[in-house]
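Need tokens for this chain, all 320 residues.
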Amino acid sequence: MSALERQVAAGLSVLLGLSAATGVLTRRSGRRDRKRRYPVHRRADGTLVEFAAHLPDDARYVVLLEAGLGMPHEYWDWVCAELPGDAGWFRYHRPGYGLSTPRPEFALREHFDLLDELRNAHFPERPVVLVGHSLGGYLAAAYAAFHRGTDRGIRRLVLVDSTNIRQVHRTAGSAPDRWARQTMVLERIFALTGLGALRPAANRRRTYADEVNRTHRAFLSEYRSWATAHREYRASQDFPELGDVGVPMDVVTVSNGLASSAAHRSAQAELLDLSTESEHHFVQDAEHESVVATREHAAEVVRVIAAGMRSEVEEVRDAR
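Here are the structure tokens for all 320 residues:
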């Protein structure tokens, strides 16, 4: 090996060492911050579910927020901040994310049971608006459909640039599908080497408050965050198509970035078929991530949520 090659090898070793050390420090501080900031719900089997909530006694309804694939619940921070004073909110981590205890596989029925348990424990008998982003949109819609006609507490559904499961099935085995799988494998490698802390997969513009930016970055540098995301992605290939969700629904679609393609708009429009009372909204200049990650766009999402609940109250008043 020449002197130059030895210098390059030594330099790379130093860089990898610094990267790994940065990853360890980022994860440790992130876990400390998360334990300090967020409570956990303890289930009967001893497993934990991390959550955050604002549930005032006089809230007219509670917004139950379902996060997308591989995303921390705090990426809903701007949506929560913009909600009106008569709304409570509840967000959480699915098993394997954050402080929530992992499970070997993701199963829809187990997920529905978890949501039932969280509602009964923390905001029983409260009117609920289900709001989901990306894959979380499908999960919220599936939960509403599962309870169709049997749960009067679910009042409304809002899908924010949601996954269309038909599109997932149509693209299985395609180049985008293979790229998504490869990306999640790469992110696991980046997490192990510490590169995930130096080059986070999301929130690169650091659009939140400093403390949230820190926990967000630490979350994305965790190996198990990406292992969980990969597990959920694989499970989504077998998720069933949904019928009528049985509640009024709003579909919120971004109008900028790669997601604004004709195929994406068409897939979003298909979601309107999930409810006989559905309306389509577009957030101008928003991208798939920024629609909830920037305050301006999050405020647009909240306007849709609040307007839907106002119209419901007016309908009830008129019926009287």
